[in-house]
Amino acid sequence: NAGVTQNPKFQVLKTGQSMTLQCAQDMNHNSMYWYRQDPGMGLRLIYYSASEGTTDKGEVPNGYNVSRLNKREFSLRLESAAPSQTSVYFCASALDRANYGYTFGSGTRLTVV
Amino acid sequence: KNQVEQSPQSLIILEGKNCTLQCNYTVSPFSNLRWYKQDTGRGPVSLTIMTFSENTKSNGRYTATLDADTKQSSLHITASQLSDSASYICVVPFGEGQGNLIFGKGTKLSVKP
């Protein structure tokens, strides 16, 4: 049982380049989330999908887009990367929005130069 | 303003010793508080979830306490092991449906031999 799988694990981009971070879960969870983690700060929510077919902005959505491809997959896209988007990105899933048990992926470390 | 504050920021202890990590929150209404362990280079993993009616909950060598009156929680680690070296993050849900989470900045624990 893999849980939440993220790809890639590491990525270096040049300013202005685009990329998509992939996330998939195999727990039949309804809700999925994208967070970023920066030094000295708590995790911050970028976007979430409460259920298949819906997406909503979180605390820091600017510069990002998401797609809930199906119940299993939730991708995060950077259309034009900026150095301020250098961060570690975590995908998470939960049975539903109010469920206590979040499962996190192992993260994608992104550097924008 | 909803906030989660953790102390200390970092802590170094010798293997076998006990330690206590603190979390103060100003979230209202309050329903539950979660402690996560995050190993270096990994995603957070849930240790325990405390509902407002619970005072103490144990998970092996980890014991969490909650005082909903003073809005404080602590995580006590007994007989520490090298594998306890990690960041410990306090998380509190807030908002309508309690589907939003506030993450503390974490306490970085280093256990030395």
How would you sum up this structure, described in words?
- Chain A has strands spanning 4-7, 10-13, 19-25, 31-37, 44-49, 56-57, 64-68, 74-78, 87-94, 103-104, 108-112.
- Chain A is mainly β and 113 residues long.
- Chain B is globular.
- Chain B has strands at residues 4-7, 10-14, 19-25, 32-38, 45-51, 56-59, 62-67, 72-77, 86-94, 100-103, 107-112.
- Chain B is mostly beta strands and 113 residues long.
- In chain B, 0% of the residues lie in helices and 58% in strands.
- Chain B starts with a strand and ends with a strand.
- The model of chain B has no long low-confidence stretch (mean pLDDT 94).
- At the A-B interface, loops of A face strand 5 and strand 10 of B.
- The total of beta strands of chain B comes to 11
Give the low-pLDDT segments of chain A. none
Estimate the helix proportion of chain B, in percent.
under 10%
Characterize the overall form of chain B.
globular
Number of strands of chain A: 11
Order of helices and strands of chain A: EEEEEEEEEEE
Shape of chain A: globular
The percent range for strand residues of chain A is over 45%
Keywords:
heterodimer, A: 113 residues, mainly beta, 7-stranded mixed beta sheet, 4-stranded antiparallel beta sheet, 49% strand, globular, B: 113 residues, 6-stranded mixed beta sheet, 5-stranded antiparallel beta sheet
What is the structure about, briefly put?
The complex is a heterodimer of chains A (113) and B (113). By secondary structure, chain A is an all-beta fold. Chain A has no helices and eleven strands.
Describe the protein's topology:
The complex is a heterodimer of chains A (113) and B (113).
Chain A lengths: L3 E4 L2 E4 L5 E7 L5 E7 L6 E6 L6 E2 L6 E5 L5 E5 L8 E8 L8 E2 L3 E5 L1
Parallel strand pairs in A: 2-11
Antiparallel strand pairs in A: 1-3, 3-8, 4-5, 4-9, 5-6, 7-8, 9-10, 9-11
Chain B lengths: L3 E4 L2 E5 L4 E7 L6 E7 L6 E7 L4 E4 L2 E6 L4 E6 L8 E9 L5 E4 L3 E6 L1
Parallel strand pairs in B: 2-11
Antiparallel strand pairs in B: 1-3, 3-8, 4-5, 4-9, 6-7, 7-8, 9-10, 9-11
